[in-house]
Design brief:
Elements (H helix, E strand, L loop, with lengths): L3 E8 L2 H13 L5 E13 L2 E15 L3 H11 L8 E5 L4 H10 L3
Antiparallel strand pairs: 1-3, 1-4, 2-3
């Protein structure tokens, strides 16, 4: 596994995104969370949905991935939250060092 990960999830409101982002950083499960408004199309309950959402992009150390996933599941408002982890294969060494420091409990 890569040493660093970017994890993506979405919420249904800007306030929910801010609350979740704060809980992630406060728990040291992620070093940085960026929140971006998006428009999502998906099938849910036998119908195609078209909804505004707020995407959270979380940077974390691989060793904190399980804690981050638990934090998202425990603090998310969705029944089935999106949680997708992508390895960071290359990055600014100083930034990645900071990610390490910020995700140490």
């Amino acid at each position: 596994m890569a040493e660093y990960m970017q994890v993506v999830t979405t919420t249904d409101s800007e306030e929910a995104a801010a609350d979740l982002a704060r809980s992630i950083v406060d728990a040291r499960a992620g070093a940085c969370v960026q929140v971006v408004p998006v428009r999502s199309f998906y099938r849910w309950e036998q119908a195609v949905q078209d909804d505004p959402e707020w995407q959270l992009q979380v940077k974390t150390a691989a060793g904190s991935l399980d804690a981050l996933m638990r934090c998202i599941k425990n603090n998310h408002t969705y029944d089935v939250p999106e949680i997708i982890a992508t390895p960071i294969t290359v990055g600014n060494e100083a930034y990645l060092s900071w990610v390490d420091e910020e995700t140490q409990a």
